[in-house]
């Protein structure tokens, strides 16, 4: 990637530490805002369909910029990319913290997103370049610990801040930390990169933005607007058509913006498929459980965050352990055990009642997240291990892009299942009544129907997880493949020497 990192025999722990703290702050900021949305709606006088742009817009900017990260990593040094990314994130945080109107707050969030979008692919690429294949699981496990700790802390910390301070304190709290990390990076990151003649294909950037942006917007809007909305099917159609165009164009370019040849490596293609399926299923817990505990059970946001805290902590603390186990045993056995745990726990979540205990929910969620920690990082690392070095930026960019897309698809699918099944159950319950329902009975019917709809969505999520479980049996331990460019270059070098 760059001379300093590529040639060093010892991993650049200083660079990795700075990048990890920067990525941690960016990830923490993502999860902090969700609980604050009702407060923002009340103060800035905006509705749910408007305020959701704080999360949808953030995701769209990520979807547009992450595919370009492969080009940026190949062209620029770690120092330059990190300082620009952290600078944009810090400016965005300051703007959002000072916002007294929604457009300014949204602009701040977009700036934050433009910085954080590059952070994850950059860090993953440095990790891949810095550690040999046999030690990469342990390294990526520590990486997982840092990144999983952010969503673990986020909801609980956010709930406490919102209860005691104004929602702007969420941004004021992050600002000095982000500024300190930027200053540390400025003085401590010293890596150099030879001048590159790479040029960004602007038409590819436009196609990528329309393609990934359209798909993400379409699926993320389906839950609110419904599948029959022109905003939904129109955006998805435009997204799919331009994505196909984008892929065809990349195949013709000598230096593609995002190299789809990574899918020629079977373990990478398989790992991408498994992580996409698991991502879709994962959103059942992140999305449906808060709806169940807050809407149907009346549990406060703070207590809801505490309920999910042990699960997130279990996933974070298990990451270094699964990393070491991956180095020793490979990804297949970990994925099979982890997915078995996920299937059982997700199915048990499809049996929720109004009497299900708080402790039972907490333990079940923690075990489910424990299973997930055995799947995500090991499977992803195994796939990346098969790629030649020059494909690392494209592999990490592809993985992060597909995670965004699969997350949006999973959310839309499970919200649709929950909504349609809720309506069906409500109709069935109403028909079974022998008397005209009172207002109190109508509320009870709605609650029972929503509970059944949530259970049905969890059941579908467990079926989705079974698909990933079947795919896991095809995993083989990866070693770095030969670079086809280097292979074809060898005979040319030899003939040149003979000619001389």
TrEMBL record:
Stated family: Belongs to the major facilitator superfamily. EmrB family.
Residue ranges constituting the Major facilitator superfamily (MFS) profile domain according to the UniProt record: 15-480
Identification of the protein by name: MFS transporter
Naturally occurring in which organism (per UniProt): Robertmurraya siralis
Chain ranges passing through the membrane: 12-33, 53-74, 81-105, 111-131, 143-162, 168-188, 200-218, 230-248, 268-293, 305-326, 333-352, 358-380, 457-475
Cellular component terms (Gene Ontology): plasma membrane
The keyword Membrane is assigned to this record: yes
Subcellular localization, as worded in the UniProt entry: Cell membrane
Membrane topology label: Multi-pass membrane protein
InterPro entries, A to Z: EmrB-like (IPR004638), MFS (IPR011701), MFS_dom (IPR020846), MFS_trans_sf (IPR036259)
Gene3D superfamilies (UniProt xref): MFS general substrate transporter like domains, Multidrug resistance protein D
Keywords, comma-separated and alphabetical: Cell membrane, Membrane, Transmembrane, Transmembrane helix, Transport
Pfam families referenced in this protein's UniProt entry, alphabetically: MFS_1 (PF07690)
Superkingdom of origin: Bacteria
Positions of the UniProt region annotated as Disordered: 481-500
Gene Ontology molecular function: transmembrane transporter activity
């Amino acid at each position: 990637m760059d001379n300093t990192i590529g040639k060093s025999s010892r991993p650049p722990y200083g660079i990795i530490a700075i990048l990890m703290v920067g990525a941690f702050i960016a990830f923490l900021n993502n999860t902090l805002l969700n609980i604050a949305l009702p407060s923002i709606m009340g103060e800035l006088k905006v509705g749910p369909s408007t305020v959701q742009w704080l999360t949808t817009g953030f995701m769209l900017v990520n979807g547009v910029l992450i595919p370009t990260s492969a080009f940026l990593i190949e062209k620029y040094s770690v120092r330059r990319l990190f300082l620009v990314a952290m600078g944009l994130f810090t400016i965005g945080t300051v703007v959002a913290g000072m916002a007294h109107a929604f457009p300014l707050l949204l602009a701040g969030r977009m700036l934050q997103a433009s910085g954080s979008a590059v952070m994850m692919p950059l860090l993953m690429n440095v990790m891949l370049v810095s550690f040999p294949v046999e030690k990469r699981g342990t390294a990526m496990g520590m990486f997982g610990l840092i990144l999983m700790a952010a969503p673990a802390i986020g909801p609980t910390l956010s709930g406490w801040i919102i209860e005691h301070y104004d929602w702007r304190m969420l941004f004021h709290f992050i600002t000095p930390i982000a500024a300190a990390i930027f200053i540390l990076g400025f003085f401590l990151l010293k890596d150099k990169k030879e001048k590159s003649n790479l040029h960004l294909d602007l038409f590819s950037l436009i196609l990528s933005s329309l393609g990934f942006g359209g798909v993400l917007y379409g699926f993320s809007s389906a839950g609110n607007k419904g599948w029959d909305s022109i905003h939904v099917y129109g955006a998805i159609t435009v997204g799919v058509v331009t994505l196909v165009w984008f892929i065809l164009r990349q195949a013709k370019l000598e230096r593609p913006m995002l190299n789809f040849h990574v899918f020629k490596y079977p373990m990478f293609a398989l790992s991408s498929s498994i992580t996409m399926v698991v991502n879709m299923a994962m959103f059942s817990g992140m999305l449906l459980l808060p709806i169940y505990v807050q809407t149907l059970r009346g549990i406060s946001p703070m207590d809801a965050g505490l309920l999910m805290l042990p699960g997130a902590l279990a996933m974070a603390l298990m990451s270094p352990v699964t990393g070491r186990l991956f180095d020793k045993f490979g990804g297949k056995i970990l994925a099979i055990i982890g997915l078995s745990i996920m299937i059982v726990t997700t199915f048990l979540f499809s049996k929720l009642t109004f009497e299900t205990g708080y402790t039972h929910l907490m333990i079940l969620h923690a075990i489910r997240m424990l299973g997930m920690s055995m799947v995500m990082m090991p499977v992803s690392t195994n796939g990346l291990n098969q790629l030649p070095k020059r494909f690392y930026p494209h592999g990490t960019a592809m993985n992060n892009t597909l995670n965004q897309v699969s997350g949006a698809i999973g959310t839309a699918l499970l919200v649709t299942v929950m909504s349609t099944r809720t309506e069906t159950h409500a109709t069935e319950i109403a028909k079974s009544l022998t008397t005209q329902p009172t207002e109190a009975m109508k509320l009870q019917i709605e609650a029972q129907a929503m509970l059944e709809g949530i259970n049905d969505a969890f059941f579908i999520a467990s079926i989705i997880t079974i698909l990933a479980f079947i795919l896991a049996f095809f995993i083989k331990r990866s070693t770095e493949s030969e670079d086809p460019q280097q292979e074809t270059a060898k005979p040319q070098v030899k003939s040149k020497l003979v000619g001389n």
